[in-house]
């Protein structure tokens, strides 16, 4: 089995988000970047599926050289090799286009992404890749098993779930439930330094959209505290003041 | 030119989020001085299709056959893109549902369109520009996305736009299109729906609990409160990790993001990763025994105290509120 896992480099989940340059740019100062948690789940599952010499896992990232520590982390967790497309990840379309251009003639059986990147939260790359490669895609899966050259996946739907069978090749965005997060061990960390990481130059992509400004949410007013002895008061406030119940 | 809205059905019925999407799409059509067309795929009663006119879709296209009875991502995307071409629609609107998330990017690629996922407001269209506001950085910020391509695909976050009812019955037309065989490679083996429960992404009211509840055996009061309010239940990540509750209830940065009118957080500390999924709720209520719990900083109402004493009293209060209503 040949698996490609798309990985993105995102601000750590505890990051306080601020902007510079008249709120047009994300302020990276002091921000620690990590492997997107959902991509880590995808990677963990890919490694499980290819255990015991049952295939290879290539990780791919669209990013500048600064993302290499994150790529090395993926190699430490257990990816076989890595590809970096040397460009700023402008938006989901740009990223999907680059990955599709790389993957189209490489014969991957499945391409995994995270359900979304926790920075721009587009949840778009998986389905865009599917469309660009003209293969099936499922955007959010909570379970992934393989039976020969078909995958059985579980997709979340409003108020339930749907079980699908998808023939290879396909793209899927993984969410929690697909695998447990793997922690790299010492041997992994050592071998990651020597695993192959190739750098590929980007192809031209049409620009469709641009983020022109960021806003931060208006701060909420201070909390109105109700005495613990009087929860009836709270229900009353929700009914007559907030008018939500 | 026109605006096209995809009206997703769940087992033949439309949900409120679809009426929101139609109302939103109608407002965009008005902004652009053009008309709105809806497309429905699958088996829906004609009366329900006609009823969509009420929300602003004067014309509804419908297509159904055996293969299209249930959702097939690729085929549905092909049909919607085709309908957009036939109707000369530059703007395609969907609801940002689980299926919508799989469709919008595909339609975007087909139409070489910019895709704004999870829009929360009407676009700004002054000066010939088209700028859509969406959440970013897991609800910690908003991004204003300028859609520069001629075609545009927008998916609307549920619960962020009000349903407007002022139209008359729609005219319903059959739409015909043969999606290619390779669009049907995936097969649905099973659909499991807990029909008696309100689905979390659609819920207007949510009652959520965390590790403060000590164990799964204590969720009875959470479910009772939720049932009384007509709310969905949710939980923090450690709670679903410990299998106290199903993963589908896990909200936050690595769970689902919701924006209900009311979010009641019981025994949840309010870690930044949890807040990422719930901070765009309109009203937040926090019940926590620790006055220093970070959740109080983003709450509108709160009670400092023991959930095991407070929640039963809240249940009684809701009961008497309902009895007096
Ligand atoms: C990469 C990453 C992603 C994450 N993603 C998520 C996510 O998506 N969603 C999420 O929820 N978390 C997420 N987390 C975990 C998050 O950091 C917190 O650990 C988690 O939210 C804490 O859950 P909790 O509030 O239920 O438990 P705790 O932090 O243990 O808080 C329990 C709270 O209950 C209160 N309490 C205890 N007893 C009572 C009582 N009798 N009555 C009233 N109050 C009581 C306590 O005062 C405390 O505030 C993530 C973490 C990481 C590192
Ligand atoms: N710059 C990138 N390089 C490689 N993969 C990416 C990149 N950005 C996003 N992805 C992948 O696409 C998924 C969804 O991202 P998004 O559509 O931006 O929410 C992520 O979880 C990654 O798997």
UniProtKB/TrEMBL annotation, chain A:
Electron transfer flavoprotein alpha/beta-subunit N-terminal domain span: 23-209
Q: Per its UniProt entry, which superkingdom is the organism in? A: Bacteria
Q: Does the keyword Transport apply?
A: yes
Pfam families membership = ETF
Q: Which SMART domains match?
A: ETF
- GO MF, one example: electron transfer activity
Instruction: Identify the CDD domains for this entry.
Output: ETF_beta (cd01714)
| Keywords for the protein's UniProt record, in alphabetical order | Electron transport, Transport
Q: Which Gene3D superfamilies match?
A: HUPs
Q: What is this protein called?
A: Electron transfer flavoprotein subunit beta/FixA family protein
Organism of provenance: Pedobacter cryophilus
From TrEMBL, chain B:
Swiss-Prot/TrEMBL cofactor(s):
FAD
Q: Could you tell me the keywords of this UniProt record?
A: Electron transport, FAD, Flavoprotein, Transport
In this chain the Electron transfer flavoprotein alpha/beta-subunit N-terminal domain maps to 3-188
Q: Do the record's keywords include Signal? A: no
Q: Which residues bind FAD?
A: 211, 267-274, 288
What the entry lists under Gene3D superfamilies is as follows: HUPs, TPP-binding domain
- Name of the protein: Electron transfer flavoprotein subunit alpha/FixB family protein
